[in-house]
Write a structure and sequence with these properties.
Layout: H1 6-10, H2 16-19, H3 21-25, H4 28-32, H5 41-44, H6 66-70, H7 76-79, H8 81-90, H9 95-108, H10 116-120, H11 143-150, H12 152-159, H13 170-173, H14 179-182, H15 185-188, E1 211-213, E2 225-227, H16 230-235, H17 241-245, E3 249-251, E4 256-259, E5 265-268, E6 273-275, E7 278-280, E8 292-297, E9 322-324, H18 340-345, H19 375-378, H20 385-391, H21 394-397, H22 423-427, H23 432-437, H24 444-448, H25 460-495
Parallel strand pairs: 1-2
Antiparallel strand pairs: 3-6, 4-5, 7-8, 8-9
Helix pairs in contact: 11-12
Length: 496
């Protein structure tokens, strides 16, 4: 993000003192300190606090926003605690080494923290700071100056479609969502509990907040969009939402930090790479129980802190370099959810040993899934496998409304075949009235997928009507024939 001109960074709009509640109720020194009675600007500004909300906002913000300031210490934006925790896993137990790593992290890594003021009043210090709008307090932080100033290299480009060849997230193109539509203030201000990992945060944004399974007797929220496709029920708690609905996203490799000859800190990374990879969840939890998740390579290397202390990351292999990711590249239709076979039999979308660098194989051994088996091998218990795979849709057998998966030939090859009866009828017997008035396809899910299976895609009312017409035609023919015979006999007798 381009730096602001000096006057733009420091100019306090006079309207702030008249229109903003903070400007009307609080004088400058109440928050920033200093001596307003001193006519000498040099001594008047002695002890001035640039950001009174960091690291502890209780004395400035907490006077009015007490509940929020109490949770401040658990906000990931303030303490960056998960980042510290993950790095400490890789560092050895030597106290001297840990102290040097902490010093290096404080110099290079922890400068990306935010605060109440750096969200609601100014731009973050990591991009040069500066007031957003003449010191006006913005209840909802602006996306362009605050959210994407820190989360720009990955999230901004992914979400807004700024990566070449990768479309913008559907929530942006269709819903025109801003960051705060999903990541609300309650999440940003912390949950009140310390979390080892950001995915353990209890009040974080979830896809399920808006997209819910249709459950009988359970009302949907006002913003909810019901999940009707059977794949959602089949893959629930097994596959993350992004695994089916994300497209290519950014991967970063290696990182080295140090100081130049002038003592200024710097960091170096390899060029980032776009790609899409599915792997095993490195650490399944109650909050994230899915077995298969999207994974992203993170910017780390064994020699990350070599400038400060050699071989600091002696436990490098204790944490994977391919970590669970939740990319902001969501699409309704993606290459991997084109059909069942695409994802279940192809290795193109999965993290493989070829994708992992040799020196990182040990750390990622629990992330790389086993190669996909061909469909003929998975279904080798079936007679005439190729014929079944060609003519039977996957959902016919792998359906949560039935016993899934079905491995009973009689389920299909009998008078009570599920292909001859609708899914709804398998669940419960329908009355004649229901059957006559049912004017929908028995397996409408297949019709929505534009699939057709002989004997499966049927409308019961039309079946009954056809049978009735056939029987009526036969009866009319019989009656007509009988009348003809009787009439012919009578005419014969009259002639005699």
């Amino acid at each position: 993000m381009a730096p602001l001109e000096p006057y733009e960074r420091l100019f306090v709009d006079s309207d702030f003192l008249e229109e903003d509640v903070h400007g009307k109720m609080l004088s400058c020194e109440k928050c920033h300190g200093g001596n307003p009675k001193d006519n000498n600007w040099k001594t008047a500004h002695k002890g001035v606090i640039k950001d009174p909300s960091y690291p502890d906002p209780s004395e400035a913000c907490g006077v009015c926003h007490r509940e929020i300031s109490k949770r401040n210490s658990t906000s990931l934006h303030i303490r960056l605690l998960p980042y510290k925790n993950k790095m400490h896993i890789r560092v050895g137990s030597d106290k001297e080494v840990r102290d040097k790593v902490k010093k290096a992290m404080d110099t290079h890594c922890m400068g990306c923290h935010s605060s109440c003021g750096q969200c609601h009043v100014s731009r973050p210090n990591s991009v040069g700071g500066g007031l957003v709008e003449g010191h006006f307090f913005k209840k909802t932080p602006p996306v362009e100056t605050n959210c994407t100033s820190c989360h720009g290299s990955r999230m901004e480009k992914e979400y807004f479609g700024k990566n070449k060849g990768v479309p913008a997230d559907v929530h942006h193109t269709k819903g025109r969502f801003k960051c705060t539509d999903c990541h609300r203030g309650d999440e940003m201000h912390g949950s009140g509990k310390e979390h080892f990992d950001r995915y353990e945060v209890t009040n974080r944004a979830r896809c399920e907040d808006c997209h819910q399974e249709v459950t009988p007797g359970k009302p949907l929220s006002d913003k909810s969009k019901p999940l009707k496709h059977p794949a959602h029920a089949i893959h629930k708690d097994k596959v993350s939402c992004q695994t089916c609905h994300s497209v290519s996203y950014k991967h970063c490799y290696n990182c080295h930090v140090g100081k130049d000859k002038h003592g200024d800190p710097y960091f170096k990374t390899e060029p980032s790479v776009m790609g899409f990879k599915i792997g095993f969840n490195p650490k399944p939890t109650k909050e994230r129980p899915e077995r298969y998740v999207t994974v992203r390579h993170i910017p780390i290397s064994r020699g990350l802190f070599d400038f400060y202390v050699k071989d600091a990351l002696t436990n490098f292999d204790k944490a994977p370099t391919w970590k669970m990711a939740t990319p902001h590249t969501i699409q309704l239709k993606t290459p991997q959810n084109k059909d069942c076979v695409t994802c279940h039999t192809s290795n193109d979308f999965y993290l493989t040993e070829k994708d992992v660098r040799p020196e990182e194989m040990q750390s990622n051994k629990d992330v790389v899934p086993s190669p996909r088996c061909p469909p003929a091998v998975l279904h080798n218990w079936l007679p005439r496998v190729s014929l079944h795979l060609k003519n039977v849709d996957c959902i016919t057998c792998h359906n949560t409304l039935l016993r899934s998966p079905i491995k009973d030939c009689n389920q299909c090859h009998s008078q009570k075949s599920i292909l001859l009866k609708g899914v709804a009828i398998v669940e419960e017997e329908c009355s004649w009235k229901d059957m006559v008035t049912r004017l929908e396809f028995t397996n409408k899910e297949l019709m929505e997928r534009k699939d057709y299976i002989i004997g499966c895609n049927r409308i019961l009312a039309l079946d009954i009507m056809s049978i009735f017409i056939l029987v009526l035609t036969f009866v009319v023919c019989v009656i007509h024939g009988a009348v003809r015979v009787i009439t012919t006999r009578r005419k014969g007798k009259s002639r005699v």
